[in-house]
Amino acid sequence: MLMSNKHMQFPKDFFWGASTADHQIEGHQHNDWTEWEKANADRLAKRAPKLYANRSPVWELVKDQATDPANYITGRAADHWNLWREDFELASQIGINAYRMSISWSRIQPGPDRFDQEVIEQYRQMIKDLKRRGIEPFITIWHWPLPLWLSKRGGWTYEEISHYFIGYAALLVREFGADVKYWITLNEPNVYTENSFFIGQWPPQKRSPRQFYLSVSNLVKAHREAYHIIKSIDPDAKIGIANNFIPYIAVRQHWINRLLKSYADWRWNYAFIKRTKEHLDFIGVNHYFRYRINFGFNQVNQGPRSDLGWELYPPAIYHTLRALRRYNLPIFITESGLADHRDIYRSWYIRETLRHVHMAIGKGVDVRGYFHWSLMDNFEWDSGFWPRFGLIEIDYSTMKRRLRSSAKAYGDIIRAGGLPDRPDKYPEDASTKSA
To answer: Which residues of the chain have pLDDT under 50?
Structure first.
């Protein structure tokens, strides 16, 4: 247990959690993303050195895997679909009391008029097992991949997609609502639309301003309509969106930098939430890094970096949370974490992130939970398997699981209900290795 004369105590009803996404851990999927992987694996393997050779502190350790096209095919992923009982037992050993998981739309609804009852029953058993363990389920209805039949009709640019989405959402609430109070309709709609329709690097790889704005509008409409249908089925349900938030720092107070910061905040952080705020019971915060504005936009690289080259700067979450206080809604940190193959930074990062979350709570921000990303190592979308985000380490050759030391450190915080009121310095050995 953590011992200190001064202790940063969190509220007794605080949710200590971890998060996952179905496509990244379940395996054995068939959706638009699995088809895209097959078509793009060679390209992604060839581009990896350009992206990571000069950014990742572990490139020499992972380059063989990162340049192998097989790295970019999900396949059985972490085989969670078959090994979920073992994974939930390890989650219980950590001590979490909340778990954010997503439901696979393509598994549930393999055709426009088909619903797989065996899949529905397995998800029911998973949710009931969490409840039996005293772990509150937070269910994400859509975490990026789409059923193939829907993707072929245009996906989020298809004019009828909200009709199918609210039908799918209603099914989930009717089937699982007795055990689920918290629903997250969409995961990071800003990240998805940016990468899929604005930059055009993710499925369906359409670089089109028109399709970008159409997809955003359809996502807004789908959330609003799903909010109403969920409430009509279960008035006590709590509904939110997991948005991605990035603090933008204007390095010099030049008017151009201030203007760019205002534009970036509006476009990335607040545009979607402003269009849905009347249909939210809480705000989900996914947060990983900050951006530096100096007549342009760049990720900050000061101090330690994750294996993906992202700056590790825990105070950034405090600024994000303070900025969101304006909406006067409860906040759940639905994702926060890092790729850390060697498990060098993760314990420090969790402690320092939670320290700054506690500071925000002290300033009146209504933060009700923290979900670490991720419960287990997972398939990291267009980076594949080599980035290791998990509290649980997965040996992909044997599918054996092991709790990392950071999982035990997180468990200590949970059992203590907080952490000592003293800052941690990031590990010196890690800072020299990543320099």
So the answer is: 1-4, 429-435
Provide the b/e sequence for 379-393 (b: ≥16 CB within 10 Å).
Answer: bbbbbbbbbbbbbbb
State how far Cα 86 lies from the chain centre: 22
Identity of the amino acid at 106: S
Report phi then psi at 372, rounded to 5.
-75, 140
Name the helix (H) or strand (E) containing 216: helix 209-233
Label residue 206 left, alpha or beta by phi (over 0 means left) and psi (-120 to 50 means alpha).
beta
pLDDT tens for residues 394-425? 999 999 999 999 999 999 999 999 998 887 77
The residues facing 403 across adjacent strands are 392
SS (H, E, C) 249-289: EECCCCHHHHHHHHHHHHHHHHHHHHHHHHHCCEEEEECCC
Structural tokens at position 165: 């989405």
Residues with Cβ within 8 Å of 149's Cβ and at least 6 positions away in sequence, in order, are 110, 111, 112
pTM: 0.96
3-state secondary structure 9-61: ECCCCCEEEEECCHHHHCCCCCCHHHHHHHHHHHHHHHHHHHHHCCCCCCHHH
**Residue 429 pLDDT:** 45
Q: Could you tell me if 100 and 140 are in contact, meaning their C-beta atoms sit under 8 angstroms apart? A: yes
